[in-house]
């Protein structure tokens, strides 16, 4: 038997060397480092808020911390869903991916607005509105346009029968 060359580039290609074991470990542990940093800074800030008896800041920090992990899980689940799928689960994930960051943005503006100058507070609310609008556009308008295009393409492929315009006997009776 003769040996044939593969038509697709393999991992031994000099342009794209295979990832080393150390590189794979680093990419897998990077989210862990981010979560660890977030946990430490959140816990120290929560401790200071508790010492100063600032219950609203304490509640806000708990909400932001829980929201971060909820959003991380929602992004993972949402990215695994098929592009053209229309389901209640996808709609709930889209709403969560828009609503939770919006609440966090406005929460930061409200929390820091108590001791900032008025111009900074207005700027913070403008940034919260702009960020919320951008997320809404990305998850509802842009995603719907992409989803409808793929569904329309599937319908065109399925309705390519040349006798589609002829009514069937079952529809007449």
Mean pLDDT: 76
Q: Which sheet architecture does the biggest sheet show?
A: none
Strand content: under 5%
User: Order of SSEs, N→C?
Assistant: HHHHH
CA radius of gyration is: 25 Å
The overall strand count is 0
Tell me what the structure shows.
- Helices cover 73% and strands 0% of the residues.
- It is built from 5 helices and no strands.
- The longest helix has 41 residues, at 118-158.
- The model is unreliable at 8-16 and 148-173 (pLDDT under 50).
Concise description?
This protein is mainly alpha-helical and 173 residues long. It has five helices and no strands.
Describe the secondary-structure layout.
Layout: H1 21-51, H2 55-80, H3 88-112, H4 118-158, H5 169-172
Helix pairs in contact: 1-2, 2-3, 3-4
Can you tag this structure with a few keywords?
173 residues; mainly alpha; 5 helices; 73% helix; globular; disordered C terminus
